[in-house]
Design a protein that fits this description.
Shape: extended
Structural class: mainly beta
Distance between the termini: 31 Å
Strand content: 5-15%
Number of helices: 0
Strand order of the largest sheet: 1-2
Length: 44
C-alpha cells in the first residue's frame, strides 16, 4: 500500500486521444488527479 504523501509509482497509460502519457513527466511540474469511472459509459 502507498502511504499518504508519498510519490506514486511511475506508469504509462494511453490517453483518450491515443497518446502515451507517463506520470513521471509531470513530477514537480503539475498536480495530477487520477480518476477511474467504472461503467460510466455503459447502460448497466
Amino acid at each position: 500500500m502507498i502511504e499518504v504523501g508519498s510519490n506514486a509509482p511511475d506508469f504509462t497509460l494511453t490517453s483518450h486521444t491515443g497518446d502515451q502519457v507517463q506520470l513521471s513527466s509531470y513530477r514537480s511540474q503539475k498536480n495530477v488527479v487520477l480518476s477511474f469511472h467504472i461503467y460510466s459509459f455503459t447502460g448497466g
